[in-house]
Design a protein that fits this description.
Rossmann fold; 3 domains; four-stranded parallel sheet; 434 Repressor (Amino-terminal Domain); 13 helices
Length: 333
């Protein structure tokens, strides 16, 4: 077989090497048309073997696409967010799309980043900033497809936190708990800046409406859980809904350092079912957010705006399911 100099490898050389058309190689790189997964893997392997490096500027001129998707998040402190991002990246790779990640907790900076993304840098944008409304994000994107996680109007994805919380509270009541504390998280991943669960907790017919049992955090992190842990364990609560698994991990850490056993002193319910919930001791009772389903739905809403052959997924409502483990127990066991 003729040896190809790596300095002069072209897309035509890759196609000839595999006995396929140049167009097929182009589609595998651009994601403009779906390519059989096995064939795409062979194309990418051959590209690596031959040392073909597509010219980025030429690619944009020829396809009018960069092959990049901008992801804008506040931070990477929440395991739920990082799990979402991992699935986003893997799914987008199936369409020959790569991700560009930007993080900021400053809304003005977030607006600047979306505007910068829209300057020919990316083919689409996924917005995770709770403080940035979908309409404003789209306006800043200036025609570049922009999808805001959990708040997009196209094929709506509704995460029914309210019903999930009621199921968790009812379960704790069945265990005999009457003093149930609640951690209100101002910034839930992908949600609005106001915790949608707080009103549900306050309106629950069995709620004691005791202000001393409500704890407020700006964001749900392990550090946040540590920050409120002493107050939670010093309260009259026998159980607590922490809002997410990271906050629960903070409570666990504090309890361990102070020789307090869970759930003997306090039954704890998390709110993500992240990997850490199964690794904690005892394993954490938590509400399951089906991260893969959430991620794939969101990605395909964006893909439908980028790729003409893609269709919008059906609208869906997801109720977080309570996963019962060993961090909860009947009162006074």
């Amino acid at each position: 077989m003729k040896t190809i100099s790596q300095n002069h490898v072209t897309m035509t050389d890759v196609a000839r090497h595999l006995g396929i058309s140049k167009t097929t190689v182009s589609h595998a790189l651009s994601g403009k048309r779906p390519i059989n997964a096995k064939l795409r893997a062979e194309i990418l392997s051959t590209i690596e073997e031959l040392g073909f490096r597509p010219n980025f500027a030429a690619r944009i001129m020829n396809t009018r696409r960069t092959g990049l998707i901008g992801l804008l998040v506040e931070n990477l402190k929440n395991p739920h967010t990082t799990a979402l991002l991992e699935i986003f990246s893997k799914e987008l790779e199936r369409y020959s799309l790569q991700t560009v990640l930007a993080t900021t907790e400053n809304m003005d900076r977030g607006r600047e980043l979306i505007a910068k993304f829209s300057e020919g840098m990316v083919d689409g944008i996924l917005n995770f900033l709770p403080g940035l409304e979908p309409d404003e994000a789209k306006q800043l994107a200036r025609g570049v497809p922009c999808v805001t996680y959990l708040r997009h109007a196209e094929a709506p994805l509704v995460l029914d936190y309210s019903t999930g919380l009621l199921n968790a509270l009812s379960y704790l009541r069945e265990l005999g708990h009457r003093k149930i504390a609640f951690v209100s998280i101002g910034k839930r991943a992908g949600s609005c800046p106001v915790d949608p669960c707080l009103d549900v907790y306050l309106q629950w017919e069995f709620c004691p409406h005791d202000p001393s049992l409500i704890f407020t955090l700006h964001e749900g992190t392990v550090a946040g859980g540590l920050e409120i842990a002493e107050a939670v364990f010093s309260s009259s609560a026998t159980a607590v809904f922490t809002g997410n698994d990271a906050v629960a991990a903070g409570l666990y850490h504090w309890a361990h350092n102070h020789g307090i056993r869970i759930p003997d002193r306090l039954s704890i319910v998390g709110g993500d079912n992240t990997e850490m919930s199964q690794q904690m001791f005892p394993p954490l009772t938590t509400l399951d957010l089906p991260v893969e389903r959430l991620a794939l739905h969101t990605v395909h809403v964006l893909l439908a705006a980028i790729i003409p052959e893609e269709t919008l997924p059906e609208p869906v409502t997801i109720i977080p399911e309570l996963v019962i483990r060993n961090s909860t127990a009947p009162i006074g066991r």
